[in-house]
């Protein structure tokens, strides 16, 4: 969430609505999810004619911003769990909001350089209302780096927050309206009930521990601009890990010990300077004491001399006139008075010397205690530095592990990318295979369709061929029976002609062998017919598709007695195998013609 632009309000207050002369200007706010309080602040852009209404709206805006700032500061400080310093962003924004609240409705003081608005004047009144605030005011005035009233006011707010009495001071200031009327307009925030509400909200800041180092901080030139982006974030911030918490706690302890060490060093330096001063004063007093002793000795000598002179004068007075006695008595009284003064001075010097000696002893004792305390703090600082070094080593180790884990994650990501590339390639291959499978399925379906069409077209021819094969089988069986009968008859004829010469029987045996060979030739097509029936779509289809007529075996022999009698007409029927033979009846007739006639018995 980001606030893109708020293009209004040339006033020093970023939440003030435009004046009547600026009617052409308007607020451009991006629609974002923001808290309801901040929405009430940002989206109230009107053009009222009543200036009191304008001031009331400004007070409401500043009060809402103060609520958001205080709430965010308390929540973030409790989540952080340590002492806040001047670099903490929510704390800086809180001081900016408080500065705007104190500047609202502030009367301008006219000077020779122009008008000047400063909230340092009202804050100076607090020391009159609450005596405890006098220390803050004196500390602010003693700071060397502050040159402007604005810087002093900012320093006063920080010191009051460190004392955890900012709410008390603001309540005491708001209750004195007659004093504030000198600095604020009647409808200013500090003069209305919104100021009392803000003072009540400041009570919650007493749970926060803050530590500011005013020396070296430039409070005069800081720009007080409210950063709205801090209040557009989610309030539920995630807590850090346990290791970060330990590191933060140790760093806080280290900062505290270092700060305490700086204070102790400063105290030691101050005490050392005081000791040096006391030593110098002691030396001076010793010298003065020596001078006083010398003077006392001199005075004693003078007193002895005066006593001698007085005794001599008394003697002479006894002998001399009375006027001389009176003059000598006056000189003696003056000498006694001078001696008394010198004696009192000596006593005072001795008393001062004893006091300085006792103070020196006390300072030496304090120095010893401070040295002991400094040694203890240095030991604690050394132990904390050792812990810090250990934590740094642990941090480096964790950083190395993190780097190695990042490298492993990078390698795994590269492996994942390669696997994704292989997956994409496999997906492309699968798509190609699926496409080929679809093509093969289409080819199979087309082949099945062609097969069905082939069966539909040539089914009748196959049936007729099967009938012809059955007829040929029947004729073959009949022919075998006839051949058997013929063999028996020939056997009987051979027996009836025993006197026949062997050379007459040899032709008959040759004829018999030929008939057997022809019988074998007739069996071959009958044996191949079951194969034709089992594969009608392949072999018979090829036989049926071949349109060229073929010659039968009898026609190829060129026998003049058989040609034209077995009925093939020089070619086989279309669809029959080449090995088919002539009709069995014709073959039987041919065998009878070739059979030799038996001899006629006279």
From TrEMBL:
* Coiled-coil residue spans: 261-352, 412-489
Q: Name one Pfam family in it.
A: RUN
Q: Highest taxon of the source?
A: Eukaryota
What SMART domains does this protein map onto? Answer: RUN
Q: Which organism is it from?
A: Heterocephalus glaber (Naked mole rat)
Q: Which CDD domains match?
A: RUN_RUFY3 (cd17696)
Source gene?
Answer: Rufy3
Q: Name one GO cellular component term.
A: dendrite
Q: Where is this region: Disordered?
A: 490-539, 562-602
Per UniProt, residues of the RUN domain are: 85-217
InterPro entries to which the protein is assigned, alphabetical: RUFY1-3 (IPR047335), Run_dom (IPR004012), Run_dom_sf (IPR037213), RUN_RUFY3 (IPR047334)
Q: Which protein, by its recorded name, is this?
A: Protein RUFY3 isoform X7
Tell me the PROSITE patterns matching this sequence. Answer: RUN
Where does the protein end up? Endomembrane system
* GO BP term (any one): regulation of axonogenesis
Query: What PANTHER family does the annotation carry?
Result: PROTEIN RUFY3 (PTHR45956:SF1), RUN AND FYVE DOMAIN-CONTAINING PROTEIN 2-LIKE PROTEIN (PTHR45956)
Q: What is its main location?
A: membrane
Q: Where is the composition biased (Basic and acidic residues)?
A: 501-530
Q: Which UniProt keywords apply?
A: Coiled coil, Membrane, Phosphoprotein
């Amino acid at each position: 969430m980001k606030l893109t632009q708020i293009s209004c309000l040339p006033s020093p207050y970023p939440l003030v609505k435009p004046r009547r002369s600026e009617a052409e200007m308007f607020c451009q706010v991006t629609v974002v999810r923001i808290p309801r309080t901040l929405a009430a602040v940002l989206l109230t852009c009107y053009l009222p004619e009543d200036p009191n209404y304008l001031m009331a709206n400004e007070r409401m805006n500043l009060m809402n911003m103060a609520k958001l700032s205080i709430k965010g500061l308390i929540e973030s400080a409790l989540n952080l769990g340590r002492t806040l310093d001047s670099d903490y962003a929510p704390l800086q924004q809180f001081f900016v909001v408080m500065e705007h609240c104190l500047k609202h409705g502030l009367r301008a003081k006219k000077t020779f350089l122009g008008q000047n608005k400063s909230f340092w004047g009202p804050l100076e009144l607090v020391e009159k209302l609450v005596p405890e605030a006098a220390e803050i005011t004196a500390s602010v005035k003693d700071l060397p780096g502050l040159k402007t009233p604005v810087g002093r006011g900012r320093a006063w707010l920080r010191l009051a927050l460190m004392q955890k009495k900012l709410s008390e001071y603001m309540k005491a200031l708001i209750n004195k309206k007659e004093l504030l009327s000198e600095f604020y307009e009647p409808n200013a925030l500090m003069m209305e009930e919104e100021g009392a509400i803000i003072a009540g909200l400041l009570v919650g800041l007493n749970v926060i521990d803050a530590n500011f180092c005013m020396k070296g901080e430039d409070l005069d030139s800081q720009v007080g601009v409210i950063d709205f982006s801090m209040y557009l974030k989610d309030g539920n911030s995630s807590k850090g890990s346990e290791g970060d918490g330990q590191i933060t706690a140790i760093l806080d302890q280290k900062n505290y010990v270092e700060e305490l060490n700086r204070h102790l060093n400063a105290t030691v330096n101050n005490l050392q300077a005081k000791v040096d001063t006391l030593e110098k004063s002691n030396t001076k007093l010793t010298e003065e004491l020596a001078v006083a002793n010398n003077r006392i000795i001199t005075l004693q000598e003078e007193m002895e001399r005066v006593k001698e002179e007085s005794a001599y004068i008394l003697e002479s007075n006894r002998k001399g006139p009375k006027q001389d006695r009176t003059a000598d008595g006056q000189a003696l009284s003056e000498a006694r008075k001078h001696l008394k003064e010198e004696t009192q001075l000596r006593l005072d010097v001795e008393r001062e010397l004893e006091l300085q000696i006792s103070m020196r002893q006390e300072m030496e004792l304090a120095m010893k205690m401070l040295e002991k305390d400094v040694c203890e703090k240095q030991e604690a600082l050394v132990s904390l530095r050792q812990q810090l070094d250990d934590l740094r080593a642990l941090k480096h180790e964790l950083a190395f592990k993190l780097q190695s884990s990042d490298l492993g994650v990078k390698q795994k990501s590269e492996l994942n990318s390669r696997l994704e590339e292989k997956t994409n390639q496999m997906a492309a291959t699968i798509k190609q295979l699926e496409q080929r499978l679809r093509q093969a399925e289409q080819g199979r379906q087309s082949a099945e369709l062609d097969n069905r069409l082939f069966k539909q077209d040539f089914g009748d021819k196959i049936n007729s061929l099967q009938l012809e094969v059955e007829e040929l089988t029947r004729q073959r069986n009949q022919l075998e029976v006839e051949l058997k009968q013929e063999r028996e008859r020939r056997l009987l004829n051979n027996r009836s002609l025993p006197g026949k010469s062997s050379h007459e029987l040899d032709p008959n045996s040759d004829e018999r062998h030929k008939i057997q060979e022809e019988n074998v030739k007739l069996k071959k097509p009958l044996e191949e017919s079951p194969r034709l029936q089992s594969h009608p779509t392949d072999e018979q289809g090829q036989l049926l598709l071949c349109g060229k007529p073929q010659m039968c075996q009898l026609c190829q022999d060129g026998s003049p007695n058989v040609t034209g009698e077995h009925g093939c007409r020089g070619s086989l029927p279309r669809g029959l195998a080449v090995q088919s033979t002539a009709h069995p009846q014709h073959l039987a007739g041919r065998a009878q013609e070739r059979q030799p006639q038996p001899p006629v018995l006279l």
